[in-house]
Write a structure and sequence with these properties.
The structure holds two protein chains of two kinds.
Chain A lengths: L2 H27 L6 H5 L2 H20 L8 H5 L1 H14 L5 H19 L2
Helix pairs in contact in A: 1-3, 1-5, 5-6
Chain B lengths: L23 H25 L6 H27 L2 H7 L3 H13 L5 H19 L3
Helix pairs in contact in B: 1-2, 1-4, 3-5
Classes of the chains: A mainly alpha, B mainly alpha.
């Protein structure tokens, strides 16, 4: 594997982790907690923010090799991962229209990446 | 343009379509915060140019965290005034800003393939977020 391909995969990994952290915060937001403090200081929220913090570091590491111009394009995969995680965990529906959008995002990311 | 007295929506009504069309300045606020978000990516790329743990690395990385913190606060305010669909569909323009900053600041070559790929991503984002309506 080329160095560039490896660092693109690292960026993709960062987006996956970021999507997981966002889903953790979303699940936490839908729960009821005994107090205001418990809304923030609970394992879900704390680990969610910790993972998000780590993704910012991983992204800096990825930018050592990948150009800035492809960064936000790869980050758009977040829409795809969030839909998949939402489907797997929260049983959120993936309509045909949504699936088409997800496939277009993947196609666009692949096209931009392999022609770098 | 619309009148300026758009009522503030409570977070409970987040998913409801605002009764009135949001004022133009809500969109200025939305795109202002989106551009600010892309500045965090510039700081990430700058930090990446320095050794981990060096002073300039920490300075640029602190910029990343500061921008993301401010972004999170303003984004919540934007979401009170716009539907999630509108907000996240508009956020797709970050792919254009990324190419613009990459070319202008880091002298990156933007190929026609990347532009086509970014266009596919943009259309995909609009389909994904509008499917939730």
């Amino acid at each position: 594997m080329s160095e560039l391909a490896l660092y693109i995969l690292i960026a993709v990994g960062s987006v996956i982790l970021s999507s997981i952290s966002q889903m953790m915060l979303k699940i936490s937001a839908n729960k009821t907690y005994p107090s205001r403090v418990a809304e923030y200081l609970n394992p879900l929220v704390l680990s969610g923010y910790t993972i998000f913090f780590l993704t910012t570091l991983i992204m800096v590491y990825a930018y050592r090799v990948i150009p800035l111009s492809i960064g936000p394009i790869i980050e758009a995969l977040g829409y795809v991962f969030i839909a998949i995680i939402g489907f797997a965990i929260l049983r959120e529906k993936i309509t045909r229209k949504k699936l088409l959008g997800m496939l277009l995002i993947i196609a666009g990311v692949v096209m931009s990446s392999i022609t770098l | 343009m619309n009148s300026k007295d758009t009522p503030e929506l409570s977070p409970i009504q987040l998913d409801a379509t605002p009764a009135k069309r949001p004022s133009w300045y809500v969109y200025v606020m939305l795109h202002g915060i989106i551009v600010m978000y892309t500045l965090a990516a510039i700081c990430s790329k700058m930090a990446a140019g320095y050794a981990f743990g060096s002073l300039p690395f920490f300075a640029w990385y602190a910029g990343v965290l500061l921008i993301l913190f401010l972004y999170a606060i303003v984004w919540q305010q934007v979401l009170k005034r716009l539907t999630l669909t509108t907000a996240f569909a508009n956020k797709g323009v970050t792919v254009i800003w990324g190419m613009l900053w990459g070319a202008l600041i880091f002298a990156e070559h933007i190929s026609i393939w990347m532009i086509i790929g970014a266009a596919l991503v943009l259309v995909g984002i609009i389909l994904v977020v509008s499917a939730d309506e």
